[in-house]
Amino acid sequence: MKAIKIVSYLILSLIFLYILSGFFLIPYIAKKEIVKNLDEILITKTKIEKIYFNPLTLNLELKDFSLIDEKDQEVVGLKTLFIDFRALKSIEKKHFHIKNILLEGIYLNIIEEEKGVFNLASLLKPTKTKEEETNQKEKTKLIDFLVSKIVLKDTNIDFTSFTDKKKYNLHLKDINYTIYDFGTFKNSLSSNNLQFKLNENTDVKISGGIKIDPFIAYGKITISNLKIKEILDFDKSLFNFELNPEANINLALNYNIDTTNDLNIFLNSEIFEINDLKLNQNQKEIARLNRLDLKYFSFDLNNQELNFKDLTINDLYANMILDKSGVNFANLLKEQKGEKEIKSSNQENNENNLNNKPWKINLENINLNANFDFHDILNNSKLNIKDIKAKTSNINIVDDKINIKGANLVTLNTKYIDNNNKLNISSSKTDLTHDDIFINGSKVEILNSALKKDKITFEDQKLKLKITTNNLGLELSKLSIFDEISFDLSNLKLNNFILEDKNNNISLSSKNSNLKVNNFLLDKQNNISINKSELYDTNVNFFDSNSSFDINTKKTNLKISNFNLKKDVITIGQILLKEPKIDILNMESKLKIEAKDINLDLNKLVSKENLFKIEKTNLNNPHISIILPKSIQTKDEIEKSALKNQEVDKKVENKKTKRVNFGPINIKNMTLDFEDKNLPIPFKTTISKLTGEVSAVKNRANSTSNLEINGVVDNYGVAKITGIVNPNNIKLLTDVNMKFKNISMKNFTPYTAKFVGRAIKDGKLELDLNYNISESNLKAKNSIIIKKLELGEKIESKDAVSLPLDLAITLLEDSSNTIDLNLPVSGNVDDPEFSIAAIVWKAFVNLITKAITAPFSLIGSLFNFSEDEINSVDFNLKESEITPIQKETLDKIALILNSKKEFAISFSPSFDEKNEKEKIANQRALNIQKYLIEEKSIDKKQVILEKEIKKTSSNIDLNLKEIKK
């Protein structure tokens, strides 16, 4: 019994001692030892207000713990530490168990000194260390532990850095963190919740779960209004720009980390925003972003996949500047020491990772609107692009393979100014779309591209060249860029195109241009091939003020097949020009040429350095009109124009000519209209159904070309031209025959009115013209046959030559009312005064003049008589009888008068007053009259005896007169 009491007293004493020491001794010793040991190892001074321990409940509480540095500043502080142990449960379950841990009022004052040393890292006092050999021990399993609840309450962290000239402060305030069931016992999955404030504006929330072994963590991180400048200001030496304080980031990120097998990290965001971002460099704004909004982002380490969805970038502005230091955006980050070595190391790592599984990057629904400025200070140029809108439905990146779907780029205005070269380029409203873009390394393939531009202006002030386009549209069905560049189909539409070259005084404009190109290829050797290209329904105007030519084409349709460019050699399989309407106007002379319904077919063209060749040319159904206007040029203007043309010819002669070889040219069903308004009455004629062939045309010295062309003149006339010419110089060799039959003379009234002052009422014309030129010497035969020519009314003309045409026609016509003329022409075409038209006209005028002044010569030639045979009747002195001698002359006169009823013979009595009497003169005249009327049956009207008596000769002179109707 006594023993039991002793044991009871002993147990009670031990319990009492345990309780007494737990409440008083242990806290005292613990406080003293903690302060002592910390002061021994730390350079700071340790303060603990009080430690409480409840030996019954195993609760430990520490109050007002702090570490004070030599400047009497608190480095680490803790208001309350409370630990609630669960010893019995720990023994029962064979693990270390703590129910609650409360850390309240933690304060950390972290300071980074100028040399980059942190105060917390240097809290330990320096100690001598001894090298000790240690044997590796087998790893033993640690006891499992479990903390049911850990609470951090009202924690604050101050971070101060003195590494920069300006002190940097960062404050983490109101940190509250709660974690449940943290430990390795039963591999518990703990949940946690962290909240704190970064400086004055940023709220951070982290909630989720965590597992120790294997390590698993998941949860959500929410960051609101993170001021980017407050983070970047930590080390300004890294950055070569200034950021505005309003720039902020909002983020809601879900995370999942699992190390059960391998490290697997999966991140995805619900919110990612960047707002109100402005970058300044050298006191200039270089970038601005109103808002970047990414609706969804995911990072999958296991599958190596990145996904971005619904990315919107609003009001981005970039101001790129190039100066002596380079491009400003390339210098945003300052190069640090050792950066080159790091880059080299990264390069080696990248090379080592080439065989690793590639990452997959997917971007969906991206939208961007921006403005861009580029100022090239070195070259004194500026580029400005306003209101850029870019979007794409999908971008997929796997290793070096990129696929972009539904890409669209729209810009409002683009301006480029090059002040050094006086060059201005501007465009308005550009719209570029691509259905699919495939990039595989250096290979690019683009499907179904379309470009639309409202207006483009190109102006080179140095060259005085300006190009303007309106409503440009370009479509490409398949573009491939690799070793070769190719596309399957291209459509170019251009509503208005204007080129003005003020240096050369030319302008070119087009409307409604449509160009289609099939199967374009640019290979490795820079050779180009195009299967087919087509220009259709295009209107073009070309004006050259130097030559005063204004050329207009409407509805031009041009097809080019099998175009190839290889080593400066161009080959074309076929060129087709179909039914354009072409108007050519010389602004000086007002000469006008119109062409329509042209079908031109050029086959197999070759262009080399010294050769241009067309194998065959077909010209079908062209209708060409040539209109000569009323001439208003003065003589001086004509001479100046001729001098100008001579200068141009000299320039052309001085140029080195390439060899030209045109194969046969076939002409079919050509219509030629000719109109001359430079006449009192406008002249117009039509040559239709012109068909023929011109043989090969070559520019070799001795080459020749044969030609044969047939056609219809007006309604009932025919024309045929045959011959051979030297195409390089017709002066060396020309032998051409031109035949015209059944040509209506009535149509030539405008010319007869101008040059002889008479209209033509009726008549038919046949021409047989032979022109032979050999070494500049011309021999021409002009055979002119006019049938049943009838003159009309007189017409006033200042250029008309006064000729008695009625008499001339009467003299020239034979019994069938046909005039048959031969007008030979000869001369040297190198003579500056030589002109075929002038020579022919002069020969014609001489012929008419001769008919009037020497009618017997002309009319005699019609009957194969000489003029001397019929211009007088010869008598011997004192004779008056008609003997066989006189009869020979009078019979010839009778023959002429019988065939020319419209003519009469007139004569006067004549005698030699020195040797004869006047009586014999009258007798001679009466005998002639009697012989012609009575014996030769000549109409009395055709024999006219004049009253005047001549006294100079015994011979009677005859005169031919037209009988007045």
UniProtKB/TrEMBL annotation:
It comes from Aliarcobacter cryaerophilus. InterPro entries: AsmA-related, DUF748. Keywords: Membrane, Transmembrane, Transmembrane helix. It comes from the Bacteria. The chain crosses the membrane at residues 7-30. One of its GO terms (biological process) is regulation of protein targeting to membrane. PANTHER family: DUF748 DOMAIN-CONTAINING PROTEIN. This is Uncharacterized protein. GO terms for cellular component: plasma membrane.
